[in-house]
Write a structure and sequence with these properties.
about 30% strand, Immunoglobulin-like, 8 strands, alpha/beta, three-stranded mixed sheet, single chain
Length: about 150
């Protein structure tokens, strides 16, 4: 009986340890600041993930009316159109045209000290396509952008 209980204990510990090494990281954290910068230029999304979460943290101090940031995911070819079309939508709509089908995912607009996150289905990304994450606050997308890739 002791051997059986010992075997069960070893099996439980082994089972708890193995998935931690095998599971892909299905999230990323990106910081933004008052100098119109993201702290990363790349986000890699593992294809093995069903859903992927991006958390945006504004580490600056300025309010969202002056230096607001969001994080928008789209095909690279759609980025400029989304940014341009979002300006008239205003801050109440996160500077995004309502129901814009080109937007894969986006966080809400946040100011200094705030955080927001968004979770999207990885199935919205296709191998071989180019994706970008960017801030749609007017004038920010030219600087605040990076590559989002679907990793094998």
């Amino acid at each position: 009986m002791k051997k059986f209980l010992k075997w069960i204990a070893v099996a439980c510990v082994s089972a708890a340890v193995v998935p931690a090494f095998a599971a892909p990281n299905c999230s990323a954290e990106v910081e933004s600041n008052d100098a119109m910068q993201f702290n990363t230029k790349t986000i890699s999304v593992p294809a093995a993930c069903k859903d992927f979460t991006v958390k945006l943290k504004h580490v600056g101090k300025m309010p969202k009316t002056a230096m607001g940031h969001n994080l928008v995911v789209s095909k690279t070819s759609d980025m400029q159109g989304i940014a341009n079309d979002g300006i008239p939508a205003g801050p109440d709509k996160d500077y995004l045209k309502p129901a814009d089908a080109r937007v894969i995912a986006h966080t809400k607009l946040i100011g200094g000290g705030e955080s927001a996150s968004v979770t999207f289905a990885v199935s919205k990304l296709k191998a071989g396509d180019d994706y970008t994450f960017f801030c749609s606050f007017p004038g920010h997308s030219g600087i605040m952008k990076g590559a989002l890739t679907l990793a094998k």
